[in-house]
Write a structure and sequence with these properties.
By secondary structure, the chain is mainly beta. It has 2 helices and 8 strands, in the order E-E-H-E-E-E-E-H-E-E. The protein has one domain. The two termini are 24 Å apart. 26% of the residues are buried. The mean pLDDT is 84.
Length: 117
């Protein structure tokens, strides 16, 4: 199945937790997400090997979910950071690649160009 890159974002470290990142506009549209103060949207993160599948959560979504915040940002759960081998620290920039494959939105760690073979 064909994959389309929807955006690349930077993971900002949050002490003792995973990190925070901005959700690309195309992902917001694909998942039909919209930030409203009175209606909190949730994202559900599901680990699949060395990538994560992100879906729009429901009000009953479990611990693997995060809330959409103002500015179209969200937390990246600690277990997802560990699965993607991300090590968010203030002085190291980690990047996430958001990919659409069919109806799925995938998130992978972006490998720096100088580390690629």
């Amino acid at each position: 199945m064909a994959e389309e890159i929807l955006g690349v974002t930077v993971l900002v470290a949050v002490k003792g937790h995973g990190g925070r990142t901005t959700i690309p506009k195309q992902v917001m549209e694909a998942l039909k997400l919209r930030y409203l103060v009175q209606k909190r949207e949730k994202l559900l993160w599901i680990q699949e090997g060395e990538q994560a599948v992100v879906t729009k959560g429901t009000p009953q979504s479990d611990f693997r979910k995060t809330m959409l915040s103002r500015g179209d940002t969200t937390a990246v759960p600690k277990h997802i950071c560990e699965a993607l081998k991300l090590n968010p620290r203030p002085h190291i920039e980690e990047r996430l690649v958001w990919i659409q494959r069919g109806k799925d939105i995938l998130v992978r760690r972006d490998v720096p160009r100088n580390a690629r073979h």
